[in-house]
Amino acid sequence: MTDTQARLSRLSAARWRLAVILTAAMTVIYVGFILLVAFNKPLLATVLVPGLSLGILLGVLVIVSAWVLIMIYVRWTNANYDAAVADIHRDHREGR
User: Is the pTM of this model over 0.90?
Assistant: First the structure.
């Protein structure tokens, strides 16, 4: 395996690890919310302030958490992955 292939392989593994971690986090958040809906409706019906129940608040937080996890992925790829791919591509063109 060449140096370029090894670098690409390591970079791909890092991206895969991040994707799996973020996917697992979103799955836990979503499944946890669905389990609460299925098995603890009285808790979700708790009124926090007039017009806002715990269920509505948690539902919004599930959506917001998806956005946050997407932002984490995008920031990581912009800061690390894209720069590393560009470096590997540049080194490959220059014959290093």
Answer: no
